[in-house]
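Example 4.3 (complexes with small molecules)
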Amino acid sequence: MTSDIDPFTLLAHVQIRLPERSNPISPPIYQTSTFETPDADAFLAMATEPLHAGFYTRYGNPTTRAFEDAVAALEGTESALATASGMGAVVAALLTFVAAGEHVIAQRVMYGGTMGLLKTIAPRLGIDVSFVDQTATEAFANAIRPTTRLMMLETPSNPMLRLTDLRAVAALTKSKGITTLVDNTISSPINQRPCDLGIDLVMHSATKYLSGHSDVSAGVVAGSSALISAIWEKAYVLGATLDPLAAWLALRGLRTLPMRVQRHNETAMQVATYLEQHPRVEAVHYPGLPGHPQHALAHGQMTGFGGLLSFEVTGGAAAAEAVVAGLRLAHRSASFGSFSTLVVHPSAMWAGMLNAEQLREADLPPSLIRLGVGFESPAALIADLEAALAN
Ligand SMILES: *Cc1c(COP(=O)(O)O)cnc(C)c1O
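Answer. The structure with pyridoxal-5'-phosphate bound is encoded below.
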């Protein structure tokens, strides 16, 4: 750049110019909040086109679009919309499909943040919610009202790894004007593709398996172009936009998703099989085990069983606490889908907020331990569990 331009003006116009016929292997991060439009007509067109990726980053962004397109392809859907967190996707979906005076059917056991939304915020907006047993398809059927607009599902659910029969529940909603949304965070699209089973929308906390490195908060919802455009109309106003740098990190993590999930599946199966025969373990909850009460359903709708499992030890809450404290490889942390094994003692985590009755209602046995396996060798994890259970 010539130096007869004053430094203020010069710095205001610095741009990267890519040499001709040169393309980066790693896609660039479009870390820009806004884009230049050629003329007034284009400005209007770009501002009003759903999911335009080059107008204003809260409306869409090329880096974010690359992540969204990859997730849509993995889920087998036409389109996807990224959000700043998994909860951003849940809130946007709820507010898109349900208004005051309308009704939602949800599971009695769902992610804590989703429960908070449905139990404390939805009623203030005049939205009615029915909570049903996810393992009883007839409970969903019985809960349907003329005002029902949305069914919110999560399978496997956390932390007991119970399943919802997705084909059966999807069939209940056909031609009733009810949209179905599945939280697919725990399975990832490698192990389960709900939209192939008749479900309308699938969402993820990309904070977990999709990004996979415990270094980014992100969410995404995928489905038909019509439904995703409808969510976009609300989401760009709600403002839970994924930052381009976070989208780039999520996409970088996503590239290794199939390899990571395969490893998680294999390790969790070995750990679950080990725990099942341990005398101090009263129950193991993992859909891949033949003894899981819904193992046949797991085979019918999942192609792998994931990296999350839970188990109950003898001796109640204090014993569970001692086992968690005795683990050396597992970090006590409120997440999963990481390179490192993460563990929680759910009833202790919720004890400050829920009484004994509510803990039962939330399906949280006192001696339950939840394990999200990482990439450690299965032998090392099993040895660590062996030592902690010997205490
Ligand atoms: C973590 C999680 C969420 C929320 O995701 P955030 O990215 O933390 O907002 C939703 N559903 C499930 C199953 C989760 O594990």
